[in-house]
């Protein structure tokens, strides 16, 4: 029986560029307790017992056109405490995003490797 999500993995082509996005823009901290793998990457603790894993590996979908709105693409949804604050950070960094089409307090953007991310403010 499924009890939760342990981690989600995104493929990235440039680890330094991806780390800048996830650490400096989104504020995630690397999980230094994770073991070294046979390929380059980084783990982030998102919440208790939940992680995001970036792996430097070829992406079979690279070059395939992606929908403008990330909600119409495969994506991971992360909760945030203040969607307005995140929107301001994305604006300041020149990151394009779209708001939820349903009117929820949510927005979608893409990381530098075009992985779609959804951010939801739970009220």
Tell me the CATH superfamily: 2,3-Dihydroxybiphenyl 1,2-Dioxygenase, domain 1
* Widest sheet, order of strands: 4-7-6-5
CATH class identity: Alpha Beta
- Kindly provide the radius of gyration, computed on alpha-carbon positions and rounded to a whole number of angstroms: 14 Å
Q: Please tally the helical runs, counting DSSP H or I stretches of 4 or more residues.
A: 2
Summed up, the domain count is 1
CATH topology: 2,3-Dihydroxybiphenyl 1,2-Dioxygenase, domain 1
Structural class: alpha/beta
Topology order in helix (H) and strand (E) letters: EHEEEHEEE
Mean pLDDT: 92
Quickly give the CATH architecture: Roll
Query: How many beta-strand runs?
Result: 7
Shape: globular
The major sheet is characterized as:
4 strands, mixed
Helix content: 10-25%
List the uncertain runs: none
Distance between the termini: 29 Å
Percentage of residues in DSSP E strands: 25-35%
Search tags:
single chain; alpha/beta; globular; 2,3-Dihydroxybiphenyl 1,2-Dioxygenase, domain 1; 123 residues
Fold and architecture overview:
- With 123 residues, this protein is α/β, with parallel strands linked by helices.
- It has one domain (7-58, 65-121): 2,3-Dihydroxybiphenyl 1,2-Dioxygenase, domain 1 (Roll).
- Helix content is 17%, strand content 33%.
- It is built from 2 helices and 7 strands; from the N terminus they run βαβββαβββ.
- It has helices at residues 15-25, 83-92; strands at residues 7-12, 41-47, 50-56, 75-80, 97-99, 106-110, 116-121.
- The strands form 2 sheets. It has a 4-stranded mixed beta sheet, covered by helices on one side.
- The radius of gyration is 14 Å and the shape is globular.
- The two termini are 29 Å apart.
